[in-house]
Amino acid sequence: MKKLVSIIIPVYNVEDYLTFCLDSLLNQTYEDLEVIAVDDGSTDNSLAILNAYAAMDQRLRVISQANSGPSAARNLGLSMCHGEYITFMDSDDWAELTLIEKLVNALETDQSDIAICGHWIAGSHYKLKVRSRKSWVLDQKQAVKMILQDKVIKNYAWGKMIRRSLLPALQFPVDQIYEDVRSVYKVFLQASRFSLLNEPLYYYRMRQGSITYSLPAMNAAEMKKAYQEQRHEIAKFYPELISCTDMNLFKANFLILYTAARDKLMMIKPV
């Protein structure tokens, strides 16, 4: 008998993208699913779209909460899920129809605790493939090193499937940004065996204006703080891997300088 997979989606004001996301999940080749969509107080038609889909497919469960942020939405979904395997999706992203089947197969074939797939970074006019050169099984130290490097294995909740036994290690910090950086690595520290697939099965949508041009200086400072917290915790387990966090701190420092210069230039009035 196939095991139930829970897919948790925080939803907030994504009416233009939500149907694409839901279609890619409810048409998965692996059908033993519960899709838990937590509407985080959307003010557009997102909730209506969710309810319409739920009326057509009982595997979709819709939960509503007052606007509390994606961490609170994910935590609520985690508290209500029943799956033996759990994964996450952002509500403006989408997946290959074989995503769940291949992640489940990796968990069961390799007897791993966490399965990780490659992904596409999808912009409005481009796609960038991010994946390992091969599929392989990692031990904890190898996986932790790769998530600290934040290249092939990214500091995101999506693109990963975990066993239910790891749920006690997974809580997202409420009222903090860069919540994935602050939480996902902690689950890695509780797992011993990882399946890394070299297939890009997840599509991460880069919405125009969402990062480089709209990043507030305060957010850049929070990015640095999140990576510093990660570095401090990793030092307790793998002090020899601390240097793997250097590039992330460099990136955060660069963005702090960039946003400060950008904001200063915006304040200069043309002559």
Automatic annotation (TrEMBL):
Single GO molecular function: glycosyltransferase activity
Keyword Glycosyltransferase: yes
Pfam families from the UniProt entry: Glycos_transf_2
Superkingdom of source: Bacteria
UniProt signal peptide: none
Transferase listed as a keyword: yes
Gene3D superfamilies: Spore Coat Polysaccharide Biosynthesis Protein SpsA, Chain A
Protein name: Glycosyltransferase
Source species of the chain: Dielma fastidiosa
